[in-house]
Every structure is written in C-alpha cells, then in structure tokens.
Amino acid sequence: MELNLTPIDTPPRAAATVVMLRDVGAGPEVLLMRRHGLSDVLGGAFVFPGGKLDAADAELDAVGHLDQPPDALHASLHDPALGTAQAAGLYVAAVREAFEESGVLLAEPLAGGEPDLAQATSLLKAGTPFNAILAQLGLRLQTRRLVPWSRWITPRVPSVMNKRFDTRFFVAAVVPEQVAQHDDFETTESVWLTPRAALQRYWDGAIEMAPPQIMTLAQLSRHASVDAVLAAARTGRPPLIQPESLEDGGTRVVCYPGDACHPVQERAMQGPTRLRWQNKRFEPVDGFEALFQ
What is the DSSP letter of 59? Predict the structure, then answer.
C-alpha cells in the first residue's frame, strides 16, 4: 500500500463489513482476507469481508427474507439520520458481501435447518443476484447474528485509498457447519488469527493492513471469547470514528477521537489516539504494545 496524498471531495459511499469470529483455545479468532492485488480499494491488504451498499440491498422483501423488521434494524444502528430502508439494506449488504467473499451465508431456510450452501454458491457463480438467490432457495437472513460494532467514515484525505466510505462494522460468530474460504476473485487468501497474532504479523511485515483494521483488531484483542465480544457490542451505541489526517513534521498522522488534535475530545475506543506513517505503514507513536494499553 502507498500513502494517499489526494483530497477526496465526493461524499463517502455507504458500506458494510462483517468481522467474523470463532472461539479457539487461545481466545477468539478473526477471519482476515487478502484483497486481490489489482483491486482499486486496498489491493493486497488483509481486510474483513465487506463492500459497498448496492441499491438492491435496500429493496429486499423484508417480510419474506428478514428475521427482524426494518424498524428494529434501524434502531440498532443508533442513527436517526439514516433511512429505515437503508438501515435494513446495510444488514443485507453485510450478509451479501460476506457470502460473496467468504462463502459464509448468515441465513436459514424458511422451513428451518441449514441453507444449501452448494446450491447457493452455484447460483452465485452463475451470476444470479443475491435477492433472487434468497427467493429461489426460500432463505431468511439471520440479521440477529450481526451486532453493530463501530462506524468508520473515511477522512477527506484518506490514508491509503482514493475513495471514501461510510462503513458499518458488524461482529458475527461463524458456526462450525460453515467453512470460510476466499473466492479467488475479490479475495485471494484467507486466514483465521487471534487479533494479537494478526497485529503481530502486521508488525513483522508479513501482511498489510489499513488503520481501521489495525484499530479494530486492537479493540477485539481485549476480549477473551466471542461471547464477550458480542456482549460488548450489545452494550450501547456503536462508536462513530471519523479519523483526522494531519501533517506532523512532514509525516502523516491519523488522529482519532480523544486525541489533542481531533475535534472530538471524548474517546471512541481504547488504545492509541493516533497512528503515524513510518516504515511505509501506520504505527502507534509509542510502539506495538501501545495498541493494547
């Protein structure tokens, strides 16, 4: 990844990301997927499955294919300015993107049981739209398995991208019956790691990540189980994180709420309040351990 120097004046595009979790002996593991190197958004970087909101996501028949009414999904995002249809659409986008990129489908047949993943995947590869797949297979999205975790809005001068997004991060537990696997199209590698192990790989230079992934992993590292993560996510309003980019002595710095140079003085998350661009990556000013303090 290269540092972006160009301001972006277009409005941020609505998007959704799913932080997939599973428990192992060492604590919760997170699914990370490497974006295709030719992607125009974070090419080559390791990310959580996700992508932009499509118009069709907000058009899904809620009565037939959602396990919660749109009003409930709207309330869960704690954003009165957001329309109800768009709020429901963000949940749909999260499930759709997770399925497209990892093969994990957070849905259930209307008659109960497990979804026919082989058939759903076959339809997807044949180009069948996601809403049509749900209708054809009689599936209902399990939105209750998605819990809002945070909201990130790309700054006007993005760190390592040339686009802006308004992204809702959700956390979700992956059941053992479903195996996550990269699609070899948008994503070319996939790996399950504990949050600290993932950050250690980043620190060792083995993988690339952008600041939202770095800071999200730092927050997740504070929890001993998937249930603890989900419980923390349900305790209140998902924090709004609008990073501020600035130059400090000729070096790019990204500041977060609570930093002396950020207009919002109340912290939105634990850990460092700024990352500095050095060694061709973003690092905590006080070193690796600052991510966990």
Answer: G
